[in-house]
């Protein structure tokens, strides 16, 4: 069987711990001066790729991380390399040049072809837009097998067995390479980058590219009309006892 | 009620980003997302280098596995935080300021200071910082002056966390007057030494395997200058040996980390434990003193920001007379004032660290300039931290006195950087003499 060449797309998003705020113009979420980090689902993808290599069951020739975004996206590419990726590609986009899931999928298709990848591992969604579409679109465009929301990935030669959590239990899929896998929360526990690996990551290659290098333009199919905050939570009320609760629920028409 | 149900349904949509975090046990498995726990940062980070921010971010992640309850518990049981030391060692953080050739990261004091600040700021306080302080700092003179053999035997084991080091300089009868050290290492016929004397305030001597010991090898009367005749050793600390006695000092704060009196009575040490040349110990120690001032300044800053963060949070949430107490200027203004003091001390601290690092390659920077900057930084950071911790307790009112709210622990700990490694008064003397050219008073 052929050695694995893994492509791992990663995205820089507002840190999961930050409470997002809508900007004044109501066109989106405020990103200026807000802590950003790697999309947590993408951390799982990087970790899984590194574990496949460390597991030694399947030879891994290359782990390449790729991110499209502003210059700052390089920070998370370095983080991914500190966790164990071999190299990185940064596709620089300009201010306002936002990609939609289909655009990202087209970009990744071109990247997978250029880099001769035979496995793409990506997060099932990014926690900013929560579209959850890119992996599926990418598999469709490439014509590869796909296994989404993986909670376990096992290799047996060219055959990959993926366990995914579904309503009421687990589902097991088998597919042959090349394929696309999207990661879910219980797949693994991402490591912290150690200091020596952070230092080594500074010397790993980071290639800078543009959308044009992949024959992509950031054309928009969707138009955001308005973004607003959810209405503030109303304070709750206290009831004395169970009878009080029942009568209150009846009063509100919930029973 | 109907509104409540709607809200619950909406937050359920966000469950994937909220749930994976909360259950990380102290020092145990990492939670699924490896980012840090939610904690708003007060300190402005503009102007820090990429390396410093990288250090801050990465160390914060590790510290997020050690919540305040971990430190409360260790403070009460006076137990060494070995899981914390192991977690930092495992990811290579103890080697932050060691050269790459020795397996370190080759970063400077600017980054090491940031690491110490981040540790203290995480809620670990001075206890967390002091639990690894000597392991970061004591290796510096070793790395610079040690023989190849000494380096190979010790440094990789120290950075990997297999060996722990303590620093043995201070003595009960010498205090700040280091040149009056009385502990004597007498050379024996076979080239080994026999040590007799007493050390005090030796942090971690209960758990350390090695001690960096400063002792006289030539009597003060027999040398031309009092700074001569002192030697530095890296010795084994064999607490089983009856010629060595280590007794714990009960103290005010930072109780998770032991401080000790150490007694030597003809305690034998090998000849090859000598670092550098005999009689050059004081010069070697001086080399690291300015660096230590920076680290301590960083630790003080971290403690100050942690206390201020707690105080501001409490002032926002605590409602008395139907409004948050932070709405009262009597509460708000002292906190705003201390924020500015901390920010100012931060600039002094990282200026000193930058100068220290630059002085290694830039010959035009005078050592005295570095000394002034490092001492000023330690002074300012310690005072700002003290103000922050005191006001944090007062802001909490009665609750500030309760262990659960952490600020009493910070308050007990914030006296350490005011006193050590050099007192406020000695720094004022130093500035009076070196900068203002006033006559020496002592």
TrEMBL record, chain A:
Record's function text: The electron transfer flavoprotein serves as a specific electron acceptor for several dehydrogenases, including five acyl-CoA dehydrogenases, glutaryl-CoA and sarcosine dehydrogenase. It transfers the electrons to the main mitochondrial respiratory chain via ETF-ubiquinone oxidoreductase (ETF dehydrogenase).
Subcellular compartments: Mitochondrion matrix
Keyword Transport: yes
GO biological process, one term: amino acid catabolic process
Native species: Sordaria brevicollis
Origin: domain of life: Eukaryota
InterPro entries according to UniProt: ET-Flavoprotein_bsu_CS, ETF_a/b_N, ETF_b, ETF_beta_N, Rossmann-like_a/b/a_fold
Keywords for the protein's UniProt record, in alphabetical order: Electron transport, Mitochondrion, Transport
Record-given protein name: Probable electron transfer flavoprotein subunit beta
GO molecular function: electron transfer activity
Cofactor binding note from Swiss-Prot or TrEMBL: Binds 1 AMP per subunit. Binds 1 FAD per dimer.
Residues in Electron transfer flavoprotein alpha/beta-subunit N-terminal domain copies: 26-218
Cofactor: AMP; FAD
TrEMBL record, chain B:
Segments forming domain Acyl-CoA oxidase/dehydrogenase middle: 166-266
Cofactor(s) the protein requires to work: FAD
Span of domain Acyl-CoA dehydrogenase/oxidase N-terminal: 49-162
Gene3D superfamilies: Acyl-CoA dehydrogenase/oxidase, N-terminal domain, Butyryl-CoA Dehydrogenase, subunit A, domain 2, Butyryl-CoA Dehydrogenase, subunit A, domain 3
SUPFAM superfamilies, per the entry: Acyl-CoA dehydrogenase C-terminal domain-like, Acyl-CoA dehydrogenase NM domain-like
Assigned keywords, A-Z: FAD, Flavoprotein, Oxidoreductase
Any one GO MF annotation of this record: flavin adenine dinucleotide binding
Family to which this protein belongs: Belongs to the acyl-CoA dehydrogenase family.
Protein name per the record: Acyl-CoA dehydrogenase/oxidase
Species annotation: Sordaria brevicollis
């Amino acid at each position: 069987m052929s050695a694995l060449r893994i492509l791992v797309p990663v995205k820089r998003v507002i840190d999961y711990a930050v409470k997002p705020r809508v900007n004044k113009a109501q066109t989106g979420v405020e990103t200026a001066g807000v802590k950003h980090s790697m999309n947590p689902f993408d951390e799982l993808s990087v970790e899984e790729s590194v574990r496949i290599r460390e597991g030694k069951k399947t030879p891994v020739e290359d782990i390449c991380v790729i991110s499209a975004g502003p210059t700052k996206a390089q920070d998370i590419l370095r983080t991914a390399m500190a966790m164990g990726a071999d190299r990185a590609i940064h596709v620089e986009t300009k201010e306002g040049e936002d990609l939609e899931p289909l655009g990202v999928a087209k970009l990744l298709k071109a990247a997978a072809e250029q880099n001769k990848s035979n496995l793409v591992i990506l997060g099932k969604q990014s926690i900013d837009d929560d579209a959850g579409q890119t992996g599926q679109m990418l598999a469709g465009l490439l014509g590869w097998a796909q296994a989404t929301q993986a909670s376990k990935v096992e290799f047996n030669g060219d055959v990959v067995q993926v366990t995914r959590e579904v309503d009421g239990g687990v589902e097991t899929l088998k597919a042959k390479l090349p394929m696309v896998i999207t990661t879910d929360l219980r797949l693994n526990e991402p490591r912290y980058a150690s200091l020596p690996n952070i230092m080594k990551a500074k010397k790993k290659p980071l290639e800078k590219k543009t959308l044009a290098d992949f024959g992509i333009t950031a054309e928009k199919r969707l138009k955001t009309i308005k973004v607003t905050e959810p209405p503030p939570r109303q304070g709750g009320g206290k009831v004395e006892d169970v009878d009080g609760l029942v009568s209150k629920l009846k009063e509100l028409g919930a029973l | 009620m109907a509104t409540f149900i709607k809200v619950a349904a909406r937050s359920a949509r966000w469950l994937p980003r909220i749930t994976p975090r909360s259950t990380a046990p102290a020092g145990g498995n990492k939670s699924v997302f490896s980012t840090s726990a939610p904690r708003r940062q007060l300190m402005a980070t503009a102007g820090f280098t990429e390396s410093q921010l990288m250090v801050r971010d990465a160390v914060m992640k590790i510290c997020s596995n050690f919540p305040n309850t971990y430190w409360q518990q260790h403070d009460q049981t006076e137990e060494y935080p070995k899981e914390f030391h192991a977690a930092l060692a495992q990811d290579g953080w103890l080697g932050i300021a060691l050269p790459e050739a020795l397996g370190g990261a080759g970063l400077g004091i600017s980054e090491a200071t940031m690491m110490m600040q981040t540790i203290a700021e995480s809620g670990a306080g001075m206890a967390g910082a002091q639990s690894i302080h000597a392991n970061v700092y004591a290796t510096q003179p070793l790395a610079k002056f040690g023989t190849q053999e000494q380096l190979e035997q010790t440094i990789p084991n120290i950075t990997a966390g297999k060996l722990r080091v303590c620093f043995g300089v201070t003595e009960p009868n010498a205090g700040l007057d280091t040149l009056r050290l009385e502990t004597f290492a007498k050379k024996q016929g076979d080239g080994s030494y026999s040590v007799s004397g007493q050390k005090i305030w030796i942090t971690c001597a209960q758990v350390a395997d090695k001690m960096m010991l400063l002792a006289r090898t030539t009597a003060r009367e027999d040398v031309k200058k009092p700074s001569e005749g002192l030697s530095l050793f890296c010795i084994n600390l064999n607490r089983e040996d009856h010629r060595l006695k280590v007794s714990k000092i009960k103290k005010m704060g930072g109780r998770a980390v032991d401080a000790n009196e150490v007694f030597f009575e003809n305690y034998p040490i090998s000849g090859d434990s000598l670092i550098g040349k005999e009689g050059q110990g004081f010069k070697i120690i001086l080399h690291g003193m300015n660096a230590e001032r920076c680290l301590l300044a960083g630790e003080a800053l971290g403690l100050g920001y942690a206390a201020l963060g707690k105080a501001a949070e409490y002032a926002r949430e605590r409602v008395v007379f139907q409004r948050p107490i932070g709405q009262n200027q009597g509460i708000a203004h002292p906190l705003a004032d201390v924020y500015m003091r901390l920010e100012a001390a931060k600039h002094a601290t990282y200026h000193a660290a930058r100068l220290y690092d630059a002085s290694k390659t830039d010959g035009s920077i005078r050592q005295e300039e570095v000394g002034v900057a490092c001492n000023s930084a330690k002074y300012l950071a310690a005072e700002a931290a003290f103000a922050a911790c005191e006001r944090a307790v007062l802001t909490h009112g009665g609750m500030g006195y309760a262990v659960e709210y952490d600020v009493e622990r910070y308050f007990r700990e914030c006296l350490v950087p005011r006193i050590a490694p050099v007192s406020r008064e000695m720094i004022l003397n130093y500035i009076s003499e070196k900068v203002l050219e006033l006559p020496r008073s002592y």
